[in-house]
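Quarterly update from the structural biology core.
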Amino acid sequence: MTNLNRLLLGLCLAALTLGCGGGAGAPYVNQGIADDYQAFYDQGPTQPKAAMEALDRAQRSDPENAYTLYLKASAHAQAGDLQKALDLLKQGNQLQKTLIYVTAPPPEDAMPTLSRVRQLGFTSSRAGDLGDKAQEYLRAVRHMGRRVALAEPVSSLGVLNGAGIVRKTYESEIEYWTKAKDLAKADAVKEALATFVAWYKDLSRNLADTLKDLIREAAKEAGLTEKEMELYSRGGDLGDAGKQQRADAARRKMYEAEVAVLRSELAKMPPVE
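Predicted structure, tokenized:
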């Protein structure tokens, strides 16, 4: 891999990690609920009661938002209560709205709670613990994953986590039906997984192609050398206010283009069963 290709990859990864922009008055910008989400994220591992109280506050502030229920479901699943998690998932999947509340539009807020929701995807491998409700749990988690991928604010990070959940539940269901010796159902799920994976590969390729061109354009507009581009991709200070401002402006354009690609590709996402 050439130095330039490594650099482009680094910048692409930085863009994917940081996410996409949005207006300051966007409906998903809410300091109070975002703070509650952060409190849940910070306190969950060591103070589960306080973490759940934070989500209770968030739910009272907006009882129609599915994402809060998904976070609650993730906490119960990690505690081993898959039935409670299933109840919350079903309740959340019936709501119309999925907002990941933030303090400021990405990239200023990196939405760390997505990692908690992603953990639900891995609990799908334990669906068999629910007996005859196993398939219901797998489907509930999968529908949640699709909704997380489509959630506002749209971002590569949200799509990555949501799509990862969908893929994992398909894999868990294939394993479930294989163990049950129902190969016909396992094969049907394999087909659904293949369709989903093909869509995700197209999305990734189209996004990478767009970002690659924009990164080159951004470097040219900002007048950056290859060494400066590498430093900038790591979040370093260029030591030149003018270059820094031009690079930041070019990067914002990249986020806007990223959002456009994501919205276009998300419209093609296959339905899930």
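The two ends are 40 Å apart (CA to CA).
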